[in-house]
Amino acid sequence: MGNNFKNEVLSRRTFAIISHPDAGKTTLTEKLLLFGGAIRDAGTVKAKKTGKFATSDWMEIEKQRGISVTSSVMQFKYNDFQVNILDTPGHQDFSEDTYRTLMAVDSAVMIIDSAKGIEEQTIKLFKVCRMRGIPIFTFINKLDRQGKAPLELLAELEEVLGIESYPMNWPIGMGKEFLGIYDRYYNRVEQFRGNEEDRFIPLNEDGEIEGEHKLKTSGLYDQTIEEIMLLNEAGNEFSEKRVANGTLTPVFFGSALTTFGVQTFLETYLQFAPAPKARNSSIGEIDPLSDQFSGFVFKIQANMNPAHRDRIAFVRICSGKFERGMTVNIPRLGKQLKLSQSTSFMAEERSTVEEAVSGDIIGLYDTGTYQIGDTLTTGKNDFQFEKLPQFTPELFVRVSAKNVMKQKSFYKGIQQLVQEGAIQLYKTVKTDEYLLGAVGQLQFEVFEHRMKNEYNAEVLMEHLGSKITRWIENDTVDENLSSSRSLLVKDRYDHYVFLFENDFALRWFQDKNPNVKLYNPMDQH
Ligand code: GDP
């Protein structure tokens, strides 16, 4: 394929924003979309927000399903870049959905609330990015409020997350006394309350504002200059290479709500954020610039239109070009499929996509063919991308159909909802009972609601509480070792799994059965 294709791919910037709830992800996303011209009014994203919901809101979401899906991938052009932002649910019960979304991005933006510092959910999501070695850019938000000292925040990055940082800019004051940011990259000061004409003040060779300026009359400016000197002398050096391999995070300060520092952030970010990278597969690395189309399914969302019971499989394109109507192989099924119904995503609407390239996300109409993790390819070369990490559920229920006459819809519903990946299905050995595992309680409630509403199958659920899940090396075990405290089940790939009642039961089992080698798939990353 020609230069045009190559330039198209190299202009892609595909990323997700990770944060603890309330740090400002929605606000920042919305401001980025405004700059990108993808939405016209502030408040658009807010109104469609789907991140923080309780079970009762699920019904509301259903009504708005079309909308919530369009905002799960947001696409816009900015200067020469084609930006794809993948949204991630804010609710922690949906975190494994987020984990998989992170498999489909090339970088991540981590938002931190300057007053709260690094919070629990941020730590979890950060670890997933770390495991994949993807570049992480940090936006420290809410500088218009009094927060922690900037040096303290950098220390937290290092101590809590174990990542070194390079501040691209540095605040001058904060809260009521927030004057702006000292921009080390563009060598200028950006004023918080400046007019358009004097928003940027250039710095001289010594890194200072030349001559007299009202900013200099405040002690805050002197303090910033002192801290900048400290950073220059004792701070980390900027290294594009280390940013690219995820060991150094560029840090930006700003205030999403007041749209301060957001454009500077976006422009700098787009320069350093990576274009689509090669991905590992069963036949080695797949070059995003290669001709052969390939991609993988990282998310399936069911029943977008309740009248048609359709589903959309979200595919991250990893190489080549997608063209509507093309035929692809699905190596898992050994089957070919014609992709005629496809969708691309804008912030405000869904539209049919005719063409898309490496780095883009497309939505494929699905009638139950795809599974999370499926590879799609064209050409003679069949291969599969690396498996997506399997999350380890912590909570379990035993589930059965309330009405035995409805067994058929019950099984169909379970199969389809399990394929979406939010819940995991297990069967007890010998007795063949169905168990479901999830990372959060909300998943079960949504499951129950959807089974009833979408499959007309009411379910009975018996809560089994939290369990420790362990798979077995070699996948061989004496089924008689199953007991109530160490329940032996099979996952949906028919592999053995032990569900231990607690840590004590796990250790006790290991002492008694040293020959059974247990492992947790999440530990292998
Ligand atoms: P999310 O949960 O991460 O999506 O956070 P939101 O974007 O919904 O923001 C949470 C709250 O913080 C909202 O009330 C926002 O208005 C507020 N907020 C977001 N950014 C800023 C900021 O820069 N300054 C201030 N003062 N508040 C902000």
TrEMBL record:
Family indicated by similarity: Belongs to the TRAFAC class translation factor GTPase superfamily. Classic translation factor GTPase family. PrfC subfamily.
Major subcellular location class: cytoplasm
Gene Ontology cellular-component annotations: cytosol
Gene Ontology molecular function: any one: GTP binding
Gene Ontology BP annotations: regulation of translational termination
Localization annotation: Cytoplasm
Residues that coordinate or bind GTP: 19-26, 87-91, 141-144
The entry's keywords: Cytoplasm, GTP-binding, Nucleotide-binding, Protein biosynthesis
Biological role stated in the UniProt entry: Increases the formation of ribosomal termination complexes and stimulates activities of RF-1 and RF-2. It binds guanine nucleotides and has strong preference for UGA stop codons. It may interact directly with the ribosome. The stimulation of RF-1 and RF-2 is significantly reduced by GTP and GDP, but not by GMP.
HAMAP family from the UniProt entry: Rel_fac_3 (MF_00072)
Protein name in the entry: Peptide chain release factor 3
Domain Tr-type G: 10-277
Domain of life: Bacteria
Name of the coding gene: prfC
